[in-house]
Design a protein that fits this description.
Blueprint (H helix, E strand, L loop, with lengths): L1 E2 H12 L6 E5 L12 E2 L9 E2 L13 E2 L10 E3 L7 H9 L4 E5 L4 E6 L3 E2 L11 E2 L2 H11 L5 E6 L3 H11 L5 E5 L10 H8 L3 E4 L2 E2 L7 E7 L2 E8 L3 H19 L9 E6 L3 E2 L5 E10 L4 E5 L18 E5 L8 E2 L4 E6 L5
Parallel strand pairs: 1-14, 8-11, 8-12, 9-10, 12-16, 17-20
Antiparallel strand pairs: 2-7, 3-6, 4-5, 13-15, 15-16, 17-23, 18-22, 19-20, 19-21, 21-23
Helix pairs in contact: 1-6, 3-6, 4-5
Pathway: Cofactor biosynthesis; molybdopterin biosynthesis
EC number: 2.7.7.75
Catalytic activity: adenylyl-molybdopterin + molybdate = Mo-molybdopterin + AMP + H(+); molybdopterin + ATP + H(+) = adenylyl-molybdopterin + diphosphate
């Protein structure tokens, strides 16, 4: 099993082979896109000497006059390549008359669930022996939350021909396929077999040393004259949610050309003790600021952190990064400081 850091290194190294594409977009349509080239101001700001005040009849003119180009000089680099545009940056671009910018084309993503026991979440009543598919709509929603479109490729049964047909169809449009289910040792794991044997994909790893999310796979191969990527996430809902944040979203941001981590890691004080696991664990928690001490505190709402317990991700805005169990250290005590990944700024 690969440690998480090593798994991410493998992913990022393989993504260097991804053929990034640029598109020219109007500034007003480029929000949440990453620039692929620097932007230089086509004009000075202000374009003419202007008053800071509305009136200053009795005051020195020079004290309250903004000179031409005092904010932005003509030809000045106002934004660098690799920068993600937000409302702040688009406002700057609009202020100097930039109309279009070159940005990275977002990777096309497909989401699929696998398993004979899975059925659409909207079916009522629930057929006996079936499980509602929560992972697929969750992953689609998560992608959209972070600015990525995602095509829904439905549910595919545990049958090789069906899986092969699905991949051939989905990879025509998708750069990345994200599946959930069919990754554990006891599953009828046909996905990796079909991808390797029928489509020539390479398995980079199939197990990650983490909890939850051990049966996480990453593969890549060529189809339709382009490099394609596959993330196989566990079927348990919480495992899929955690690994999507830890492994998938950082990869998608890299594919856009953003090299900084999408989720900040901060130090927080935990509110209660927690027994450590033999694997490093990502514990769902809620962080907030202590106004008195100006420090971050994390509350573990639900100490039942089972990978099948969806209730444990309610109100979660942080994943605590707890170390693995050792003889010398068997638990985290209340008041200890640990590292946490901020996955949401608000709840």
């Amino acid at each position: 099993m690969l440690p998480v850091d090593e798994a991410l290194k493998v992913i990022f190294e393989e993504l260097k082979t991804y053929e990034k594409q640029s598109v020219l977009l109007p500034v007003d349509s480029a929000n949440d896109h990453v620039l692929t080239e620097p932007v230089y101001s086509p004009e000075p700001l202000p374009a003419f000497a202007a008053s800071i005040k509305d009136g200053y009849a009795l005051l020195m003119v020079t004290d309250f006059e903004r000179q031409i180009g005092c904010d932005v000089a003509m030809g000045e680099c106002i934004l660098s390549a690799g920068f993600r545009l937000t409302s702040s940056e688009t406002s700057v671009l609009n202020s100097v008359g930039v109309r279009d910018v070159k940005v990275a084309k977002k990777p096309s993503i497909g989401i699929v669930s696998t398993g004979d026991e899975i059925c659409e979440h909207s079916i009522n009543p629930l057929p006996y022996g079936k499980v509602r598919d929560t992972n697929r709509p969750m992953l689609i929603s998560l992608m959209r939350e972070h600015g990525f479109g995602a095509d829904d490729f439905g549910i595919v049964p545990d049958e090789p021909d069906s899986i092969l047909a699905l991949f051939k169809m989905a990879f025509k449009s998708a750069d990345v396929i994200i599946s959930s289910g069919g990754m554990s040792m006891g599953d009828r794991d046909l996905l990796k077999e079909v991808l390797m044997q029928d489509l020539g994909f390479k398995l980079h790893f199939g197990r990650v040393f983490m909890k939850p999310g051990k049966p996480t796979a990453f593969m890549s191969g060529y189809m339709y004259d382009r490099k394609k990527f596959f993330f196989g996430l566990p079927g348990n809902p919480v495992s899929a949610w955690v690994t999507a944040h830890v492994c998938v979203l950082p990869a998608l941001f890299r594919m856009e050309g953003q090299h900084c981590d999408p989720f900040p890691i901060v130090s927080v004080t935990v509110d209660s003790s927690y027994d450590l696991d033999p694997r490093p664990e990502y514990v769902r928690a809620f962080y907030s600021a202590d106004g008195g001490t100006k420090s971050w505190h994390a509350k573990i709402f639900d100490h039942n952190q089972s990978s099948s317990r969806l209730m444990s991700i309610r109100h979660t805005n942080m994943l605590l990064m707890l170390p693995q169990w050792t003889v010398e250290r068997t638990k985290i005590n209340a008041g200890e400081i640990v590292q946490g990944i901020i996955v949401r700024l608000h709840v």
